[in-house]
Amino acid sequence: TQLLEQSPQFLSIQEGENLTVYCNSSSVFSSLQWYRQEPGEGPVLLVTVVTGGEVKKLKRLTFQFGDARKDSSLHITAAQTGDTGLYLCAGGDNAGNNRKLIWGLGTSLAVNP
Amino acid sequence: DAGVIQSPRHEVTEMGQEVTLRCKPISGHNSLFWYRQTMMRGLELLIYFNNNVPIDDSGMPEDRFSAKMPNASFSTLKIQPSEPRDSAVYFCASSFLAAGEQYFGPGTRLTVT
Q1: Which residue of B has its CA nearest to A93?
Q2: How far is B100 from chain A (nearest CA, A)?
Q3: CB burial class (10 A; 0-12, 13-18, 19+) of residue A16?
Q4: Do A33 and B33 touch (CB under 8 A)?
Q5: Which of A42, A92, A99 sits opposite B104 (nearest CB)?
Q6: Over the stretch A22-35, which tens digit does the pLDDT of each residue have?
Q7: What pLDDT, on the 0 to 100 scale, is given for residue A1?
Q8: DSSP letters of B71-96?
Q9: B6: number of CA atoms within 13 Å, CB side?
Q10: Model pLDDT for residues A90-106, shown as the tens digit of each residue
Q11: Which residue in B102, B104, B108, B109 has the most chain A C-beta atoms within 10 A of its own C-beta, making it the best mutation to test that interface?
């Protein structure tokens, strides 16, 4: 069974601080997606990484896919209150007949003013 | 495009009543997913359809839950009879590929008293 573990589970920081959250698995994924979910809304896709070692930047957010495609990290520089939310990673498996995303439980981030 | 549409947004019902949740996916997407989200268990995949056919329903809790997709633009998730432990936020999502980027609806917050 494929599992994605996210850490930390909860994170509370002050505005302006930097942070990194992690998404780890013992399984290889063909792609890795990061979503952010704000209270009262559904998750919204931030980025998809598909190549081992790939790094993608989205303004102050930097996403990295591990070389072995088993793990990923999300780094936020100079966090803002608008970054508050639940960050979910999801792994894509294009092998086999049952092709679906495997979801982590998320990291709940609170950025305080 | 209007995005994924779900109705109702909120549902409060009494134990034992039938509940029907509705979803309209994004036009052109051929995969549709029903999720349940709770604080304790996070985002759980209940069932997903590919080209209107149920592919994986292993996440459906028990026989009280059923889902249908009569055509490419409509799906329902039914709970009969409902129980207090079914209280959660239910999300519908659609994608072009089953393991691809998913677009979520706003969710239905279900409360069973």
Answers
A1: B99
A2: 7
A3: exposed
A4: no
A5: A42
A6: 999 998 998 899 99
A7: 59
A8: ETTEEEEEESS--GGG-EEEEEEEES
A9: 26
A10: 998 766 555 678 899 99
A11: B102
The DSSP symbol for B100 reads S
Query: Closest-CA residue in chain A for B35?
Result: A42
Helices and strands per DSSP (H, E), number in chain A: 0, 11
User: What's the pLDDT score for residue A95?
Assistant: 64
- Could you tell me the two tokens for A38? 């704000």
Please answer yes or no on whether A42 and B105 come within 8 Å at the CB atom: yes
Predicted local distance difference test score (pLDDT) of residue B17: 97
Tell me: cis bond preceding B84? Omega within 30 of 0 counts: no
| A79 vs A111: CA distance, rounded Å | 7
Name every chain B residue with its beta carbon within 8 A of the beta carbon of A103: 42-43, 45
Q: Which candidate, B52, B102, B111, places its Cα nearest to that of B79? A: B111
Residues B48-86 have pLDDT tens digits of 999 999 999 999 988 999 999 999 999 999 999 999 999
